[in-house]
Write a structure and sequence with these properties.
heterodimer, A: about 325 residues, alpha/beta, TIM Barrel, 8-stranded parallel barrel, B: alpha/beta, 12 strands, about 35% helix, about 20% strand
Amino acid sequence: MGSIELVCPAGSPAMLKAAIEAGADSVYCGLRNDTNARNFPGLNFSPQELAEASAWAQARGRKVLVAVNTFARPGESARWRASIDAAASSGAHAVIVADLGLLAYARERWPNLRLHLSVQAAAGSPEAIRFYAETYNVRRVVLPRVLSVQEIAALGRQIETETEAFVFGGLCVMAEGRCALSSYAAKRSPNLCGVCSPPEAVAYTEEDETLVSRLAGYALDRYELGEKAGYPTLCKGRFEARGVLSYLFEDPVSLNAMGLLAGLRAAGVTAVKIEGRQRGKAYVTRVAGAFRQAIDALDAGGDPQAYEHLLTDLAEGGRETAGAYKKTWR
Amino acid sequence: MQITLGPLMFHWPPEQLAAFYEAIAAEPTIDRVYLGEVVCGKRSPLTEHALAAAAERLVDAGKAVVWSGLALPATVRDRKAVAALTQASDLIEINDVSAMLGRDGPFVAGPLLNAYNEGAVKELARRGCVRLCPNVELSLEAISKIAGFHPAMEIEFFAFGRLPLALSGRCYHARSHGLHKDGCQFVCDQDPDGMTLRSLEGEAFLAVNGVQTLSHGVQLVDVPARDLRAAGVTALRLSPHSGDMTAVARAFRAYADNRLSPCELAEDVRKAGAPGPFVNGYLRGEAGGESSRFG
């Protein structure tokens, strides 16, 4: 059985090099604007930096994937098209796109440009994937995090398209590309602005020896003073339902599916993806390194689970989950 | 401007469905009715007979009926249901991109699709979309820009109801009862308007409906009908709740005909019954949960 491609985040040229040196097969990055879903100050690449990085990676037999994965604003498509053009001209291996209009543009303007489907396109069934493959010649799909490993295996048997599955980092519990929770509370959301639970709406207030984390004024969680307070991502908050307070949507944990690598490979997944372009060089060096060891062990017939503990302290709240990959999560 | 009734998002028992659609059939102010299970395919075996009978009643009463598809088909059964829907020769409503594969005929792009600009709408139109029900996140300004690029596209605006905000593979209704989606015991039928969620300070905030998360607040337009028309809106969608939807429809008909101001509309709709306070921030490009004063 062939190996599995390790796709790592690159928030900057330095992080890109670190990821590849630590063992990533491919890296994904974005341009310095709102055409990608990590549009933070100090992050991302200029077209020039992208071209240089692509050449550097290619010389080492590695691939650069460019995320142009947000939805264009009405009347402002020119900016998104320009990003597709920059990516196509840079020598990068592929662009990662979600927007139907941009897929059509890329297909028409750059017929030889490899198109990957962003998780934001919400293609979680064979029919959805085939639609994108047949209409736009999408070659790979990043799978939404709502499928179990068995479902991924079943899906893989019904499509020709390559699949890429998230295995580490921040965890979305709602179907990606279709969630408006953030804008309902705080005006901005992934689909409108490429951001979730935006920082300008975050506040921490001290009340009665506790720290309350808030988003747009809504109290989402409470911590003892001295306890490490998490970021108030909306779906990770505590809510009262039927009189009981709980982390109803999801515990504030992050994804670590290293223990499922064998299952994912057997399910026919082409590539595994690490989330976290905003997390920096040290993070990607550690995560890429750990997953590189795990995948190499798997290829040699060993058990990747031995390397899982290497990353536990990086998890949100120090706690991890295998997420929707295990069917009991539902 | 048409008045339409969106597909019922909640899990009501067959007797309630029958009575509801009987009343809708008799209500002259409603032009079009969307039918079909949009949220969870597990419910379909329980409701499909009642919905088929409702369709007959509605068509006999002169209403246009449009079948709506699942938003997040999860099982083989769900996918077969969506595939079967795509074969209908009549107009259907598509709520998931998977339905685009088999579709060779006209369709309404439902609000649960993620089409956010004129380029995406162009692709939908190319494939047969004749009407767009914009995603609830889109402001009137954004809608009017899209309409400007697509003057022939009908635009149906989500004018009343708890706002559909998210979908998941996990069933939160089941989870709140200590159950899983498999073995859910259909507990979602206990909350005809969705189950209200409060923040840890007791502030009502969101609502859960099976795998769907909605707002607690009830969207209600707060601008004069002419502003909607100016933005390209040609129909108003009322999402069904357990209040008097025929009274809601009559109020909206009067509003669309410029006989009721937004304030008066709010008064009449409040009398008909709504499961939460009115919100309308999305129309202005603000947080969806914000509301203007109707005065």
